[in-house]
Fold this sequence. Notes:
The complex is a heterodimer of chains A (343) and B (235).
Chain A: H1 17-39, H2 42-64, H3 69-73, H4 77-88, H5 95-110, H6 123-134, H7 136-140, H8 152-160, H9 174-181, H10 187-191, H11 204-220, H12 227-243, H13 253-258, H14 262-269, H15 280-300, H16 307-324
Helix pairs in contact in A: 1-4, 1-11, 2-4, 2-5, 4-5, 4-6, 5-6, 6-16, 11-14, 12-14, 12-15, 15-16
Chain B: H1 4-14, H2 25-30, H3 35-58, H4 68-90, H5 92-98, H6 109-117, H7 124-154, E1 156-157, H8 162-165, E2 174-175, H9 184-187, H10 189-218
Antiparallel strand pairs in B: 1-2
Helix pairs in contact in B: 1-7, 3-4, 3-6, 3-7, 4-5, 4-6, 7-10
Amino acid sequence: MINTTPTAPHTQRPTSVTRVMALVLAALIPGWVVLVISFSWGYLINPLLACATALVTEAALLKARGRPVLFFLKDLSALVTAVLLALALPPLSPWWMTVLGTALALIFAKHLFGGLGNNPFNPAMVAYALLLVSLPLYMTTRWANPDQWLSLTDTLSIIFAGGVPIDAATAATPLDVYKLNIANQTANEVLRAPIFGSFVAEGWDIANLAFLIGGGVLIWQRIISWHIPVALLGALMLMSLLFGSDADLRVPLSLHLLGGATMLGAFFIATDPVSAATSNRGKLMYGAGIGVLIYLIRTWGNYPDAVAFAVLLMNFAAPLIDHYSRPRVYGHRKAVKGYKRDD
Amino acid sequence: MSDARELTRNGLWNNNAALVQLLGLCPLLAVTGTVVNALGLGLATLVVLVGSNTAVSLIRHYVPDTVRLPAFVMIIASFVTCAELLMQAFTYELYQVLGIFIPLIVTNCAILGRADAFARKNPVLPSMLDGLMMGLGFLAVLLVLGALREIIGQGTLFTNMELIFGPVAASWELTIFPDYPDFLFAVLPPGAFVGLGLLIALKNRIDSGIEARRAAKAEHVVAGSKRVRVTGHIS
């Protein structure tokens, strides 16, 4: 939002919200393309639908709140929320679920709190968690099978005409399959399932690597700092080494990193500058907290993936982290921790 | 304050137990999943509120201030026990559905609040009226929230009304959306929080609309009128 002209020397131009959001969208593209190629058209149709919904909802809300509509629509933040949500939802979600989720994200998680910059929680993750709690059936049985290429007409009929996908077209997510089967099988037996493919998890692994590359671009472009993703991934690795080094017992680290929503979460969702902690030290704590929570919920919780809940829980904690991680003010010897208690 | 119209307006709207005082939220959030649950609990609360307000007002000259709260709680607990036994006798299924939330009416702060804030300082009739209006206001919010959550959560309205009104009411169920996938968020307590928040927002919106209209009407500046000019500090 800072649009001041910097003083000379003009080494860099001021960033605008629009540029930041556009770069985030651009950095999402590699992973997005991989998802479409691996899991067919659902990942193309639903994000586009979410974008259309987001534009309409955002415009209506801005109008209702008496804000300049075009000015805020141009900042693209609604589109980022929509795309993140749609990439997190199962690709064969019915159209009304995508529309409902996007609208709820913008109404309840964003504009009821005061719009861009005022939301204490990540809007996309609020909507995701809300849908996961409300419609567990649709959120668990609509994941596409990477071995089964659905034609465009089939995908359209599933998404828009209320068709129920045939069993072969859907598959449980790799994290889910592994966690379920490891209870009575060895790691080798579990990994024989076609869903794990030749590397880590068919489709998911390359998509995660693509999101990792996109996230690297964001760090290189200074859109996000390295602290949150590094702390998140580091904490997840540490937890996995401490508690889950035995692949016959727990989901292995490779699957933790590349088999779910980890990379999307680490680089694109946890790094939301509004709902995350602010100082660098705070960001490290915030990211590490998310990493630990992801491991805890995935391993001992009921839900197969945990990025949404982990991010939301740390969103809760972000003000507290900010309170205790205030950096040293230049010229002062020691950092002021918390608020002064001399009253 | 003891004017009947004022009491009515306060109980139903201006000082509504649920929307303004935010008292009694535990039952409000827990049992408003359907209209019938809301109605059952709302009626029980209404009966207890009227009874306890009346009784507290009757003994107001005899109970020392220092022990008033235990006395009030005893009275309220007695009325709740009556209500519970009555429900057990006449609407047994509903009694089972509401479960622990009927005994928990004792802890409903709206009831103790009215006993302490109003009934112990006022004569019997105004206290009774206050209890009735507060109870009706609470009941109304319960009903609206119950209807909202039932429609959004299950796509129906007035299910299981036979639990209160007998077999006649079995056919009252309306299906608003056929083939509705249950939206669990509205059925669970978090949905009640959001629903209550929206109702409070709606009430404040209506109030500010009324206020704005009144202000617009009152602020007619007559030509030639003089303005008061204030200088210096106003403390």
